[in-house]
Structure formats: structure tokens, C-alpha cells
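Example (one chain per record):
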Amino acid sequence: MLQRIQSIWLLIAIFGAVFLYSVSTDLDVEMKAPIMLISCAVLVILGGLSLFGFKNRKRQIALNKLSIILNVLLLGLLSYWLLKLSGGINFPEKGIEPLFPVISIICLQIANIYIRRDERIVKSVDRLR
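Predicted structure:
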């Protein structure tokens, strides 16, 4: 059921993790790129499991919540890196890396709303049988 609206939101969240890794390859040595690689890979795997696990909506919601938690931790790590970056506030090289986890969090939350809506529809149809 990849034609559902929550699948589109999940795809956007997965692309957010992919874009985050591709943009963050130029991070400073202090950022430790393996941390970024591992966290982005876990986010892509969780998103893929959630995307293709459409028959089990409760597990899909749990995977999305886990992805949200990981995105929040990643956002905190990126914000710490951004604040620790030298150059002051007018330094033009400060990147957009923290924007991708925010977009992913919003998309995952919207996907959870639509998944819960589907769950309510299925429960209401089961009551009629």
C-alpha cells in the first residue's frame, strides 16, 4: 500500500536522512563522521521497515516514534556542533544540517497522524461486521 499519504511522508523523512548524510560529509573532525553514518543508516533502515510494514500499523507507529527520538538526539548533536563551530554568528559557512532532522520529525509526526486515522477507520469497519 505504497499509495497511501503516510507513505509519502515516510519517504520524505527517509530522504531527509539521506540528504543529511550527503550534506554532513564536510563536517569538522570533531563531529566524528562514523556517528553521522551510523545514525543516518539506522534512520533509513527504520524508515524502510516502517514504510514496508504497512500491515502492522502499531509497529509502524512505534518505529516512527523511535525514528523521532533518534532525530531529536541527532538534532541536539548537530546543534551542539553548530554552536561549537568557530566563526561567530556572521560566519557564512554554518550549514543547514540541523534543518534535515527537523523536517524528518515533522514528516514522521504527520505520517503517524495518518496511520492513526487508518487504524480508526479499520476499527470502525470491524465493528460493523
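Caption: Helices lie at 5-23, 33-52, 57-84, 99-128.
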